[in-house]
Amino acid sequence: FLSQTITGNFASVIHGLNANHLTDQVIQRSKRMILDTLGVGLLGTSTEVCHKVTQYSKIYSSDISSTIWGHLDFRLPPLYAAFVNGVAVHSMDFDDTWHPATHPSGAVLPAVIALSEAFPQKKKISGLDLLLAFNVGIEVQGRLLRFSSEARNIPKR
């Protein structure tokens, strides 16, 4: 019955995706989006807002940790690493954009990288798995945007 609902259908599509669904064009565009997001994120680590969230987040720790971009000696639990790195990406407001207004890579890539670092060494994911996770995140964000009634109220450019 779950697959007969919008949410169930959405979950079935996402669950059914695998690396074979990534075309060469999708892989190339994804790599470009990732490179752009990493560049903007590294630039964003020098902003005041990024410094503030980094300082705030120093109170959190765990046995599982992920890298804070631009800080080789500072790690945080994956949730907070994704938050700090996401703020870095968005802080310059140069990250990629879809219309209506959303910045897909800045929300997805920091979470995917933080989670991928949290896997035990013997279960590390491949680059293709990382690209798949990134694209699933982009797909989820795009579909949620299409489902959103608020997105329809954004003026066209």
Short synopsis of the structure:
With 157 residues, the chain is mainly alpha-helical.
Question: Characteristics of this structure?
Answer:
about 160 residues; mainly alpha; 2 strands
The first-to-last residue Cα distance is: 40 Å
**How many individual β-strands?**
2
**Are there runs of 5+ residues with pLDDT below 50, and where?**
none
Radius of gyration: 17 Å
Strand content: 5-15%
Helix/strand structural class: mainly alpha
| Shape, principal axes of CA atoms | globular
H and E string: HHHEEHHH
**What number is the mean pLDDT?**
88
Can you put this structure into words, describing what you see?
With about 160 residues, this protein is mostly helical. The chain contains six helices and two strands. The chain has helices at about 5-15, 25-45, 50-55, 80-90, 105-120, 125-145, and strands spanning about 65-70, 70-75. It has a two-stranded antiparallel sheet. A hairpin with a 2-residue loop joins β1 (about 65-70) and β2 (about 70-75). α2 (about 25-45) crosses α4. The longest helix is centred in the first third of the chain and has 21 residues, at about 25-45. The chain is globular, with a radius of gyration of 17 Å. The model has no long low-confidence stretch (mean pLDDT about 90).
